[in-house]
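Take one protein record:
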Amino acid sequence: MIELTPLSKPAIQTVEIPGSKSYTNRALLLATLVDGPVRITNPLFSDDITAMTNCLKSLGITVDVPGNSIIVTGSYLDVKPGEHRLNARISGTTIRFITSLCCIVKGEKVLIGQEALCKRPIGGLVDGLKQLGANITYLNTDGFPPLHIISDKLKSGITKLNGDISSQYFSSIMMVAPLIGDLTIEVQGNQISKPYIDMTIDTMKEFGVDVINYNYTKYYIPAGQKYYKKTYNVEGDFSSAGYFFAIAALTNSTITLKNLNPLSKQADRRIIDILKKMENEITTNNQTITIVGKNITPININMENFPDQAQTLAVLSAFAKGKSVLTGIRSLRVKETERVVALTVELAKMGIKTETTHDSITIYGGNPKPATIDTYGDHRMAMSFAIAGSKLSDMKINNPEVVEKTFPDFWEKLTELGVIIKHD
């Protein structure tokens, strides 16, 4: 447990944001499909990235970590026949991305993870891969990890996926498409988290492969393309930056965030627009973004395309006088924890009333009280409620180490702002 002592006055500080988890894991997957070594610079080093690199190594793909970079010297062609046991730990991105890769490499692959990961659905991706000829079976509960895969190739053609569960299913198949041939991925229903699809298409393009996006109703990857990138630089992570944007707005601080691309395709960049509407000042300059915090107001926002900021905005809304409504949050119910339930329970501890539907949460903010927050093994629960600790005395957070999943230096960065952290 840690206890947070808030800022004694508005901060004027600079914070360097780590590389994007989403781009790092995409780059790692794509690097295995390149003939020859690929150097990934400014990657994120975290539990999720370790999970991905360890899974690649378990397949026999050589990955080195010299300094502040990752070099993938091996490729998918290095995978030998035999049994490969891959442990994705608690990384949903890893198990979903690696599943498609495992369908085009040799051997018998077993994909496992920790208990929390095995409660996260993967059936939609498995169904999509089976349409392409994959031989995948569930080792425990249908629709969930662990998985057993004996395929070593997929057929070209058309596969259909439900767009309403996870964009990662689409990204997973899309990235291995050049190794399959002509491929069309059709979206059944509505495509959620569209910016994450954009990120995948953007990364694939940087590595040399084009995807034709038919307005998120289907994606076509023409045959005859090949990945060839040799060096890839990972831009800073807007998901991580969002906590500091919110702290600036809440505490009237001036915070400059380094290593951020103002023109990024990352979904969570949208938090800037939301804070601007609250009349906070945002300025950009090359790879930095500065926020001068001035105000927070109730919001009514559809979070469907950037759900990772929902917890951040929910905690911020607890301090805004009035009713805030976050919609488009159904995907939060199948994350590291049931995040909608977790939010309602922890906000209630702070005296904040909420109402929920399957796809929304309404927050009646204005005068939150300090509380001891449970994190449910969820990194974003810890970091989002730390926002409250920059304003309120006596906020306590259980199991703060969960931030290792995506932002290992989070508590150090918070200390740099002037928040005092006491470990119990």
